[in-house]
């Protein structure tokens, strides 16, 4: 019963999060790419290309057990999620760029996440005859990401008054559901969580710090404005832990497998790193670069 609650609750909470993301999107958010392609491409490369490479490099320097290392890679493959839009707003960054990157990378993850998992799973895991169903994973991701986002955008288009009232409530509801489900999952795997939190904590904190720094200095090195650099740092440095746990559970076919633990721990450590980082970003001069 508890396993069923977790296996259903995780996808449902993720779908609600993606629906709330769709409520905040319009077609203009995607066409904005043409107005500032340099900032968009920089953020896209930082998140989709550099992030997994950095994660793999950091793991090579550790002796993390293979299943936990694979869990870190799953987290690295995940997009930022709606949380990055909120954090960008707090940091007084380029919220429009944040929304565009979040939407595009979230939709792209239906392709990138299964492909990257297929490319790395055999390196970290001895799967034997149990190959991961990549097609099934892609279809499942589409159902809980693309479909809710599309429904959210349709709702915004044809029921704008409802959208203005409901957007924050949907995001709040998804957060509450996720916290409840995560608490239940951790409770049922408490001994495993405690045994590994001291191992995972330092690695995930370092992972978070490095990614935030790379995003910021890459963007500034390319002469992007401070607001854009702050957004790229946040988008590249903050991953969707809900999606990470959900994907790990889909792969394993069980609720909260051991390679979902990195995403669960990251859901806590992320705020220990990003909140101080946002305070520092707020103190940076938000220089505006010309669209390029």
Walkthrough of the structure:
- 79% of the residues lie in helices and 0% in strands.
- By secondary structure, the protein is mainly alpha-helical.
- The chain starts with a helix and ends in a 10-residue tail after the last helix.
- The model is unreliable at 288-292 (pLDDT under 50).
Short description:
The chain has 292 residues and is mainly alpha-helical. It contains 13 helices and no strands.
Task: Identify the notable features of this structure and list them briefly.
292 residues, mainly alpha, 13 helices, 79% helix, globular, disordered C terminus
Largest sheet features:
none
Q: Number of helical runs?
A: 13
Tally of DSSP β-strands? 0
Radius of gyration: 18 Å
Q: List unreliable stretches of 5+ residues.
A: 288-292
Shape: globular
Explain the layout of strands and helices:
Layout: H1 2-23, H2 27-31, H3 37-60, H4 66-77, H5 83-90, H6 95-124, H7 134-144, H8 146-158, H9 160-188, H10 190-221, H11 226-237, H12 241-252, H13 261-282
């Amino acid at each position: 019963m508890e396993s069923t609650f977790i296996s259903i609750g995780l996808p449902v909470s993720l779908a609600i999060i993606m629906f709330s993301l769709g409520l905040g999107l319009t077609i203009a958010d995607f066409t904005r790419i043409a107005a500032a392609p340099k900032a968009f491409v920089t953020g896209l490369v930082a998140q989709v290309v550099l992030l997994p490479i950095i994660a793999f490099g950091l793991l090579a320097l550790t002796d993390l057990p293979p299943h936990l290392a694979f869990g870190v890679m799953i987290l690295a493959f995940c997009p930022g999620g709606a949380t990055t839009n909120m954090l960008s707003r707090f940091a007084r960054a380029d919220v429009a760029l944040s929304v565009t990157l979040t939407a595009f990378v979230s939709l792209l993850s239906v392709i990138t996440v299964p492909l990257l998992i297929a490319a790395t799973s055999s390196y970290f895991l001895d799967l034997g005859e149990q190959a991961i169903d990549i097609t099934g994973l892609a279809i499942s991701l589409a159902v809980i990401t693309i479909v809710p986002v599309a429904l959210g955008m349709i709702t915004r288009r044809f029921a704008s008054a409802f959208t203005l009232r409901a957007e924050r409530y949907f995001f709040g509801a998804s957060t509450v559901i996720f916290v409840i489900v995560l608490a239940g999952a951790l409770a049922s795997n408490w001994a495993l969580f405690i045994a590994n939190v001291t191992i995972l904590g330092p690695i995930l904190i370092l992972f978070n710090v490095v990614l935030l720094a790379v995003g910021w200095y890459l963007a500034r090195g390319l002469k992007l404005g401070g607001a854009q650099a702050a957004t790229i740092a946040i988008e590249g440095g903050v991953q969707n832990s809900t999606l990470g746990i959900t994907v790990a559970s889909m792969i394993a076919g069980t609720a909260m497998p051991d390679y979902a633990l990195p995403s669960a721990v990251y859901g806590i450590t992320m705020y220990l790193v990003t909140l101080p980082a946002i305070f520092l970003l707020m103190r940076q001069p938000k220089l505006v670069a010309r669209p390029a």
